[in-house]
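Here is one chain, start to finish.
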Amino acid sequence: MSVDDDIRQAGMAQRWGFTHTMFLSDPGGESILQPLELFDPEERGGIALPGMVIISPGGEEVYRYQGRDFADRTNDDDLFECLDGLGLDPVDPAPWTGADVDVPEDLRGFFAPDMFGPYFRGNRFGAAAIGGRLEDKSSRAIAREHRVMSAASLEAWDTWRKRS
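Its structure:
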C-alpha cells in the first residue's frame, strides 16, 4: 500500500512481475496509512512509511514494524517467526497484476528490477562506512541494523532472481 495512484501501483506490479501481491492505493494516506501511523507527511508531500502489520484471525495486532524513513525495512526473520507462531495454513491468493489498468511506458522505468541490487549494495556499504565513523553505541546499532537489513534484502533478491 502506498499513496501512489492505481496506475503507478499497477505499473509496479507489472514491472516486477508480482502476480500474487495486490497493490493498494491510499492517496494522502487518509483511509489506512494515517490511522495505522504508517504515514510521513513531511516527505515529498506525504508518503507511506515502510511498515508491516500482522493481524491475527481474531482481529488483534500481533506484529508491527514501522520504518523510521523510506529506506528502513523490517527483518524477515522476525516477520516469519510471528507468522509461523500463528500456525495458519499458507494461502495462494488469486493472481493480481494490475493488468486491467493501462500503464504508460514512462512509469515502467521507476525503480526497475535491475536497480534493486545496486540500491541495496549501496545501502549496505554506506551503512558500513558510516557505522565505522560513529562513536555512540545507539547510532552504531542503527547503522548495523541497516547494513543487516540491506544484506538480507540482497539475499532475498538473489533467491527470487534464481527462481524467476
